[in-house]
């Protein structure tokens, strides 16, 4: 069945609200610069926007759940509000992450790029995928299933190899367009991808948590000139950039990489040489770059979206308070 996240939310909340959600929704956006919908945009009009970020002039999903506790599970599963917690990290996460990273960077993202020159991805329910593009097409992953939605038509297949995925989607394996320095090699395109559904589900929950917190950080009036959240297929992490020309930084949520195997949050300063940033201070604890990390094992709090938001906000405030050494 085709998915339209915003339309599904309208059916749930009733006619008194215009719901904003975190997932991409059709129709496809055919104009730049993003060629993608802004899921948390406040639409105005006669209806009050129901917002994941609690932006001014809106009603938050948290407030909505207080009046409709029967919908708490529906809301929290979509990382819109309520108490949102990650499941335990599966032992199979690394092998599954590497397999899905290859799929995202070399098959899924290039299919979008061929249509509009963009390869950024987003969180989708239980996984990740493209914004809608072309003729209302969306490619997404949920668990170990690859889904190709085109208008009112949906096809899905259990993932096996990169070659089989590309054939199913009618696209080419592209080793260059979306790859970054830390992308895994393309490898054998015919080998069976080692994907554990439980680990794939964790990745989907990790991305949902990250997008919810990043959208809240973006909506915070103390965040200077933020970009839209995207899941970068080459790095395989959701992130935004924010800050003025001297204090600009990347704020993201890595599912793990070569430097830190477990999932972690990070803030990476772009221009540490312009700042009096004391990297000997334990606060700036990132290995290999000027910034700060918080590993998932150190998450402390009932709502993991709030844990991420507080980490990013506190680090943003400390970075913004740092003096410029070379004005």
The description of the largest β-sheet is:
5 strands, antiparallel
- Write the element-wise H/E pattern from the N-terminal end onward: HEEEHHHEEEEEHHEEEEEH
Question: How much strand?
Answer: 15-25%
Structural class: alpha+beta
Structural shape: globular
Number of helices: 7
Give start-end ranges of low-pLDDT stretches: none
Helix content: 25-40%
Radius of gyration: 19 Å
Mean pLDDT equals 95
Strand order of the largest sheet: 4-5-6-7-8
Our measurement of the CA-to-CA distance between the termini, rounded to an integer number of angstroms, reads: 56 Å
According to DSSP, the number of beta strands is 13
Summarize the structure.
The chain has helices at 5-13, 61-67, 72-77, 93-116, 162-169, 197-219, 304-320; strands at residues 17-19, 48-51, 59-60, 122-124, 127-129, 137-142, 145-150, 153-158, 230-232, 237-242, 249-254, 264-269, 291-295. The protein is an alpha+beta fold.
